Amino acid sequence: MYRQCLKKALKSRSLVSEAASYWKGSTRSFSSSAGTQGNYWRSSVKKLSAAATIGAAVAAFYGIERQRSSPVSCKEAETTSKGSVNYDKVREAIVKVIEVDDNIAPAMLRLAWHSSGSYDKKTNTGGSDGATMRFSPEKDYAANAGLFRARDALEPVKKQFPEITYADLWTLAGAVAVEEMGGPKVAWRPGRRDAVSGQECPPDGRLPDADKGTLSGTVQHIRDIFYRMGFNDQEIVALVGAHAVGHTHKQFSGYDGPWTRAPTTFSNELFRELLENKWTLRKWNGPDMFEDPTGEIIMLPTDMALTWDKEFRKYVETYAADQDRFFEDFAKAFQKLEELGVKAFQEEAKKKRGWFS
């Protein structure tokens, strides 16, 4: 693959050189023959032909130069999902996994969320591109504890469709899981690559913690984490709404209990519970968490923070009253989350703006 890249670069350089020489000759011919109409048109054709040749050469060379300067090396580019993947069939395979055990759907959503939520817009690192949670140290971070269950559950799908990258598979599974749990359809597109080692793993600490010890500290922590990725307050509340599904596990996070009484149904129930239920600190030998009067459902300090902060709270109230609005906003925010840091999408956006932008 490296030899092919080098050959293309050298060929492009040669083509540019030849076209430039031809252009000079055409220009001289144009100047000397401008006196007759026939020679004028012949020279014009030569001029246009040379221009086309130069354009093609520059385009080819520019593509190689951009590929060489991109963080994605030629070798890594081989690990991008191939065009032959039948994504409808992949979706069907994911659905079958969920049908066997619907408790795996919240874990798939969390896998997609955590593999994407490591993005840092300032350094353009982290995010779903690379599926780096396959490697240490990222797979061993405390925030990712228990996600091996979702990764393992998707392994048979990867074996069935080896052409798809893990990065595409995990994010597609997250979108499918939301829909299968009764949530909105999340727009998804392929193009993520797989990293070849753990050297691209983002540093620990980029995912949100459940508690920072104080009300103000917890609220600020939420904003710091999400603003780093490029989200606003409304998007933050929408994304945290995913806690409507799933269950905390003491052996993984230290917390214990589900957020709602329907942990495999995607809904606006988290927001309704936050506003309509009564929450008190649980008295137990564990980290600070809140429980309702029955003790059956829980809220983390970061969940409660959405009601403590007036800017967050107004969106909690909106989503509690309007599930359709929540679904619409969540679908947009989750698509944005899953596409953060994807080099192919960034390159595509640059091309739309122009080569030299």
TrEMBL record:
Location of the region described as Disordered in the Swiss-Prot/TrEMBL record: 189-213
GO terms for biological process, alphabetical: cellular response to oxidative stress; hydrogen peroxide catabolic process; response to reactive oxygen species
Enzyme Commission number: 1.11.1.5
One of the record's GO molecular function terms: metal ion binding
The UniProt record lists the keyword Metal-binding: yes
Keywords tagged on the record: Heme, Iron, Metal-binding, Oxidoreductase, Peroxidase
A Pfam family that the UniProt record links to this protein: peroxidase
Domain Plant heme peroxidase family profile: 90-357
General function of this protein: Destroys radicals which are normally produced within the cells and which are toxic to biological systems.
Family the UniProt entry places it in: Belongs to the peroxidase family. Cytochrome c peroxidase subfamily.
Protein name, entry field: Cytochrome c peroxidase
